């Protein structure tokens, strides 16, 4: 279910004024665009945006409400986040038609403990997100796959992912998603000690240039 977020037209895009908006911790600069509409700078409340974004999820639909101008269904296309303060700095809203399919990245979650893990194998996940096509309201929050039956050497491919009636996975069926790889073998301690002894020169020898001379 979509959540509503109030928005205002933003008449300026100067860097100094964008910075001022961010420093208030209330006004969050954003941009609204879509396939059939021109890009327009907008502003939303920062705290309200975080609340709504957590509610609908990564690919959820937000109803962007402009007072006196109407409401537009949008998805969050991109977000700029301050890496130090972890604050949202800017948001890209993509205007969508609820009756037309769009593409978006959906997280892949591995569930269960693989048999191979219990035997010392290591779970290696190659893809954490996959491209999916669906109508805006039909995107799954994530695509989960149970790996509990996998042994060492087994792998999960895109064709093994659960199918949905309302979405299409845009990935080759043989694309690897995750695998259980054998544990890395470490050399035995006695072998390591033997190698170290072999590398040390005898006490009665001196190494000079490319020649070894015996001391008297």
From TrEMBL:
Q: Map out region (Disordered) in residue numbers.
A: 174-216
Keywords on record? Ribonucleoprotein, Ribosomal protein, RNA-binding, rRNA-binding
Carries keyword rRNA-binding?
Answer: yes
MF terms in GO: 5S rRNA binding; structural constituent of ribosome
Q: Which residues form the Large ribosomal subunit protein bL25 L25 domain?
A: 5-93
The Large ribosomal subunit protein bL25 beta domain sits at 101-183
Q: What is this protein called?
A: Large ribosomal subunit protein bL25
Record the organism.
Guptibacillus hwajinpoensis
What gene codes for this chain? rplY
């Amino acid at each position: 279910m979509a959540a509503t977020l109030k928005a205002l037209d933003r008449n300026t895009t100067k860097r100094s004024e964008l910075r001022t908006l961010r420093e208030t911790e209330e006004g969050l600069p954003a941009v609204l665009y879509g396939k059939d509409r021109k890009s327009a700078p907008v502003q939303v409340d920062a705290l309200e945006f975080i609340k709504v974004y957590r509610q609908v999820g990564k690919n959820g639909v937000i109803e962007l409400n402009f007072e006196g101008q109407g409401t537009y269904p949008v998805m969050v296309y991109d977000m700029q986040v301050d890496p130090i303060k972890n604050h949202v700095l800017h948001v890209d809203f993509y205007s969508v038609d609820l009756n037309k399919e769009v593409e978006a990245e959906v997280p892949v979650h591995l569930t269960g403990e693989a048999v191979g893990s219990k035997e010392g194998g290591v779970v290696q996940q190659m893809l954490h997100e996959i491209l999916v096509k669906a109508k805006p309201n039909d995107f799954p929050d994530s695509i989960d796959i149970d790996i509990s039956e996998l042994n060492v050497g087994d792998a999960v491919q895109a064709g093994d992912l659960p199918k949905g009636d309302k979405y299409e996975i845009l990935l080759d069926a043989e694309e690897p998603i995750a695998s259980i790889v054998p544990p890395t073998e470490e050399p035995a301690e006695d072998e390591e000690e033997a190698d170290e002894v072999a590398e040390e020169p005898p006490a009665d020898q001196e190494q000079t240039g490319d020649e070894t001379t015996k001391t008297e």
